[in-house]
Amino acid sequence: MNEELLFQPLTIASLELPNRVLMTTVKLGYGTPQGEVTERHIAFYVRRAEGGVGLITTEPLYIHPNGRELPTQLGVHDDGLVDGLRRLTEAVHAAGGRIMAHINHAGRVANPKLVPEGERVSASDVLCLANQVLPRALTLEEIPTYVNYFARAAGRVRAAGFDAIEVPFSHGYLIHQFLSPHTNRRDDEYGGSFENRLRFGREVIAAVREAVGEDFPIIVRMNAQDYVDGGLTIEDAEELASALEEIGVDALSITSGTMCESVPYCLYPTGTPRAHLLPMAARIRQRVSIPVAVAGRIRTPDVAREALALGQADWIGLGRPFLADPDWVRKIEAGDEEAILYCAACHQGCLAELRRGHGTSCIFNPLTGREAEVQITSVERPRRVMVVGGGPGGMEAAIIAARRGHHVTLYEQDDRLGGRFREAVQVPYKEEFADLIRYQQVQLQRTGVEVHLNTRVTPEMVEAEAPDAVVVATGAQPVVPPFPGLEETRWMTAYDLLDGKVEVTTSSAFIVGAGTTGMETAEYLARRGVKCTVVKRRPEIGKRLDPLAKALLLRRLESLGVDVRTGVEVVRFETDAQGRTTVIARPWPHQEKAPELHFPAETVVIAMGLRADRSLADGLAGRPNVYTIGDCVEPREALDAIYEGFEVGRTV
């Protein structure tokens, strides 16, 4: 395989690109309520330019306020925004990068909290399942106005100094809503035949071309597949690609899905297939002579190289992988691929934080979205730092402290590093979490951290070592309520099961707890042929799971025949003389005279959460320079542990 394929230059219209790597559009939510560029935007994109990305794409810039998705989304709908956008492009250019503006109108995908009911528009009045918006159809008189919105936005893009412009015929946004028979029910010249459904998009491209000039690259992002009944198929995509080349588009970027009906195939969370658009991109590429890019969980350089070598695409698109590691390109160029921090598609730091209104971040990379405010500085006087606990939080603290110049020793009581992430790696579709453990181990070695495994640290040991600072990252232990009769049953915790310390050898298992761990344990066992029943007292299932990943998980559990029941409170376990166990439960909330519920249980798996392990932290109470992080403070998400480890590491 030619390892230089990624670094061959590429020409798109008048634009010369130094390599075949495209950063696709990623929603950031760093803007002001008026859609203005902030220093946070500039620092974020500059950092990716410094990392060597061939062409950076902005987050979607809305062309009119009634096409917004986020309250802090960047806009390009007003002339007053051009100066801020120019500051962005100039900063990226100064860093050696190239940047493309992605302009968009969300149509029926627009945020109903931001767009009044009468202003929610589409090709036809077809309900959006994701946000429950029923839009109104644009009238014939209104359509030219919306074409003009795109044109005026494109003129601002050119004036702001961008290197190219991208127009989405994808993801169920406004132009796609005209293209797709699923959302276009019109009986006028904008509906019916393919040519009629393409008319709005064709007019948009013509208006954009007039606004930006003949020498300015126009790229169209288009779906290879909608994954919607009545939506566009790969055959439609091939026809569309040919038409777009005839219209005068300079390049295509291939994606999939709609933000109303098939969201996972737009955002690709854990549980969606890796790089599965490559064969479809290859079919599209055979129909056109203009460059074709493709994205969709292409996270590693080997996959990217193979796609180029096989002629499946001319350049490779990645979005969230650049949140995890902005130096993805530079590290490949330097031959240092083991140092790449790969995205795990978990959505816990990016989309989850975006939905909370915090702006996009990354569970693995605490600097993402904070490039303008956070620095890692070297220390003038190195100190001796003792880190206790080799989970992601403890390792992050050790790495950052050592990178700053401290002498760091890390202690872990188990025979392996990774903490509870070792359990996550065993869960189906979460195997990629192993990349964080691998990456952190590489960094521990490179920063000179002294690692001791199989070592349980006591307060007395700390006093004997006499470090200048102690970071306690001892994590948490499983909660096992004192159920009557539990000790007489065959039982284990989900955490020990996923960590490989025990295994289920029976044909069925009864899982107590339907949180994230309980549900993922059920899939882990069901895929090994174990029939699973999962019960939970409260109605929420997988409360902390990303909504998209949760929907996919529930669908898989249903297909695997897992019996999930809520409103069930376990009371006790009864085991007879032959060793057969019955779980005795009752409905919850408690109902008077409601009969007990009986479940047979060959093996019981407890997945009822974690309790902070504060034994060492409490034993060091009163000692100066002791920092507690992660689950030993309170059991939470990996993001919290990693961020706290990072903050301690950069300030200790």
Q: Any key phrases for this structure?
A:
652 residues; alpha/beta; 5-stranded parallel sheet; 21 helices; 27 strands; 31% helix
Assign a percent range to the helix content: 25-40%
Class inferred from helices and paired strands: alpha/beta
Number of β-strand runs: 27
Give the CA-CA distance, first to last residue.
45 Å
* Total of DSSP H or I helical runs spanning 4+ residues: 21
Major sheet, described briefly? 8 strands, parallel, barrel
Give the CA-based shape.
globular
Mean pLDDT: 96
| Strand arrangement in the largest pleated sheet | 3-4-5-8-9-10-11-12
- Give the low-confidence spans: none
Strand content: 15-25%
Radius of gyration: 27 Å
Tell me what you see in this structure.
It is a single chain. With 652 residues, the protein is an alpha/beta fold. It is built from 21 helices and 27 strands. The strands form seven sheets. It has an eight-stranded parallel barrel with strand order 3-4-5-8-9-10-11-12, surrounded by seven helices. A five-stranded parallel sheet has the order 15-14-13-16-27, covered by helices on one side. Helix 2 (82-94) links the parallel strand 4 (55-62) and strand 5 (99-104). The longest helix is centred in the N-terminal third of the chain and has 19 residues, at 194-212.
Question: What topology does this entry show?
Answer:
Layout: E1 10-12, E2 15-17, E3 21-23, H1 39-50, E4 55-62, H2 82-94, E5 99-104, E6 121-122, E7 136-137, H3 143-159, E8 164-169, H4 174-179, H5 194-212, E9 218-223, H6 234-247, E10 251-255, H7 264-267, H8 278-287, E11 292-294, H9 301-309, E12 315-318, H10 321-324, H11 328-333, H12 351-355, E13 384-388, H13 392-403, E14 407-411, H14 421-426, H15 434-446, E15 450-452, H16 459-465, E16 469-472, E17 476-478, E18 491-493, H17 494-498, E19 508-512, H18 516-526, E20 531-536, H19 547-559, E21 563-566, E22 568-575, E23 581-587, E24 597-601, E25 604-606, E26 610-612, H20 615-619, E27 626-628, H21 638-651
Parallel strand pairs: 3-4, 3-12, 4-5, 5-8, 6-7, 8-9, 9-10, 10-11, 11-12, 13-14, 13-16, 14-15, 16-27, 18-25, 19-20, 19-25, 20-21
Antiparallel strand pairs: 1-2, 17-26, 22-23, 23-24
Helix pairs in contact: 1-2, 3-5, 6-8, 13-15, 13-21, 18-19
